[in-house]
Structures are given as C-alpha cells and as structure tokens.
Amino acid sequence: MPIVEARLAPMQPLSEAELQSAVSSLIGRLVMELSRFELNLDLCLRHLAGGSEPVLLNPLIERLSLKAKMDALREVIARRHAGEVDCLREFNSWYAVMDRIRAKRNAFIHGGWVFNYYEQEVTNLAPGLPGSVTRKETRYSLSTLEQELAGTEAAAREFIELRRRWGF
User: Exposure of 128 by Cβ count < 10 A (0-12 exposed, 13-18 middle, 19+ buried)?
Assistant: First the structure.
C-alpha cells in the first residue's frame, strides 16, 4: 500500500514535510520488519541448539551481530541438511537475498539521509566520513523504498516458510 495518496493530475511534488513523513514511515516499517526477522532468527538458532534450558543460550545469541547469526544458521543448515539438495538450494538462495537486505539495513540504520525535494527523492549516505572512498551514496524515490520494503517482507516470509518446510 503506497504511503502517499494519489493526487489529482497534474502530479504535484510533495512538500518537504510530506516527503520526510513518507520516507520516515517507509524506513521505520522496513526497520521494524527486519527487527521481527532478527527475533525469528534468534528463536530459530535457540531452537536448533536445543537443550533442556534453551534460555541459557540467550547471552550467546544476543552477542552476535545479525551477519554472525545468519552465518551461524547457514553452517547449521549445511550440516543438518547435508543430504537434502533441495533444502540447501532453497536456503542458500534465500540467504543470498537476505544478506543483501542485511547490508542495506546497516546502511539505513548507521548511515545518514539527505532529502532532495526538487527530485522528490532521498539519498542514503552509508557509514563513513564525507570524502571517504568507502562512503557509498544511494538514491531512493518513494517507489523504490516501497519496493525495498516489499522485498524485505517477502524475504522474512520466505524464512518462516523455509522453517516450516524443512523443520528448522
């Protein structure tokens, strides 16, 4: 569902406040979706480790970065489902998509944002100091942010489906 309602033709640009509100809403929803995914990942790792008191694993899991958690799950799935080619293919395909989303998440959370009202877009400045060769700038329109959100929601749903289908 688009954040900004359609306007009467001809299309009028959003005001500064409207653009900021729409972008903030989309980024907030994306961050919340990724937080839900990370909680599901944490619970999955705890479940796979088993034991009589799974809450004892919480301090270990909580210390891991999202990347480390995803990599740990990948290793566990590779061992647990070593003979299941379809499972490994589906999981690795999902992992590749979610790892790209994870990298964008880091830029979204740790980077900066610059609004360009004339172009009706926002630029994400990935972490790094201005002028740094590693600093990456990515421009987003509202529609591309909506696509990012939809892709994140789809990947999070696929994770749940993979867990159901393959029992992890």
Answer: middle
For the stretch 65-87, what's the b/e string if a residue is b when 16 or more beta carbons lie within 10 angstroms of its beta carbon? ebeebbebbeeebeeebeeeeeb
Model-wide pTM > 0.70: yes
Q: Are residues 135 and 114 in contact, defined by beta-carbon separation less than 8 angstroms?
A: no
pLDDT tens-digit readout, 103-141: 999 999 989 999 999 999 999 998 877 777 777 899 999
Tokens of 125: 């400045």
Spatial CA neighbour of 30 closest among 86, 84, 102: 102
Q: At residue 28, what is the residue type?
A: G
Q: CA neighbours within 13 Å on the CB side: how many for 76?
A: 18
DSSP string of the chain, one letter each residue = --SSPP-PSSPPPPPHHHHHHHHHHHHHHHHHHHHHHHHHHHHHHHHHH--S-GGGGHHHHHTS-HHHHHHHHHHHHHHHTTT-HHHHHHHHHHHHHHHHHHHHHHHHHHSEEEEETTTTEEEEE-SS-TT-TT--EEEEEHHHHHHHHHHHHHHHHHHHHHHHHHT-
